[in-house]
Structure prediction request, 448 residues.
Amino acid sequence: MNKADSEHMLGLLDEINYKLTENIENANLVLFNTCTIRETANHRFYSQLGIAGNRKKQNPNLLIGVGGCVAQDKKKWLQTNFPYVDIVFGTNNIHKLPELIQKAETGTKVCEIEEELPFDLPELPVIRQTKVTAWVNVILGCNFNCTYCIVPSVRGRERSRTPEVILKEIQRLAQEGFKEITLLGQNVTAYGYDLDPNYSKEKATFGYIPLDPQYSLAKLLRYVHDVDGIERIRFLTGHPFHVTDELIETVSELPKACEYFHIPMQSGDDIVLKRMARVYSVEKYKKMVEKIRIKKPNAAITSDFIVGFPGETQEQFLNTVKTVQEIEFDACNTAAYSPRPDTPSALWENQISEEEKNERLRYLNSVVNEVLERKNKKLLNSTVEVLVEGASQRDTSKLMGRTRGNIIVNFDPVGSLHAMTDLIGQIVNIKITKTNSWSMNGELIIDN
Ligand code: SF4
Prediction:
């Protein structure tokens, strides 16, 4: 979602004639769109901010701006500790960026943080970094209160954009030649519930699902499915609580909806899940997986896991390992627990040592890699459908794309009747010749 926000910032900057440069020495503005989900993200930001500060010593006219979640969370601290920062703006007033920059250009220090998004969510210009796949924000914020998570305090309560506005954006993207859309939200599976006529602030809790919802992610998928030119639709990131039967059925029914479910589980132990306030049990999560696999046996189910949550015993950690092996996820993002300021679990006394967390993370990663290697091997010599996104990052004489299950496939375009660039944006069939844990290689199948 931060990357999607950055694309909007680029669009807003373009309106006031700021263009992107790869070289800080050519820049007259350095803008940070920060993430604070883990401490490592903060550290990276502070070290880059130091580099920009040094650059400003050589070029006093250089403007430095900080937006995103760190700015939302720590505006005073930023101003006090980094006096060379000219602009501080939050996650809820990205639309004001041109105005704030123009003010800073006059030599005024600017700090503007809004606690809530404006009532009418503004439509923002955008400059996208890709030409084939596009992110579209459909819901912002999160109503859950996971005890480790800083997102609700920096992104606020759930706010959905209306289907009409979303559709207009996607129709425009289709006209521009985009083929794949990812509907985005911190909790995308809650899409639309806050648009219900009976919704109120009191109902802005994670448990609210209208009886007969007028708006839902499943319904939105159907609208988007009707847009000519769009060939694939995904959504990110879901919460198991909101993965309804309607959603599973809709994904299995709609040919353009990729059978790809990224639904973070976070732990494979019920006690830990309870302390995380994740509001589901391991059994419930497994039932959801079963339902998805009954409807779509080849569905890719991927997850996020946190290891070393405060108080997590070795046995509880091993329950996570066992669950990863049993469910056989198609990919897992894993992270050692990182205490975030002002979240309940950061204050608990039973913190796990860094050494132990890293040891658990290493072990879980080795298990995840084994599972992925085993699963991907089954695809050897099979034919998969790949949407070609561009040149492979590893070898620019090759192309890369993704399967419907979001696995990266690199392939050689040799033998194609089309020029390499003409294949970008096409869905092609690839015979898999080599598999790794996180990507595959293959050969283009030439149609006669
Ligand atoms: S559902 Fe996700 S974004 Fe929301 S509080 Fe929990 S971890 Fe954070």
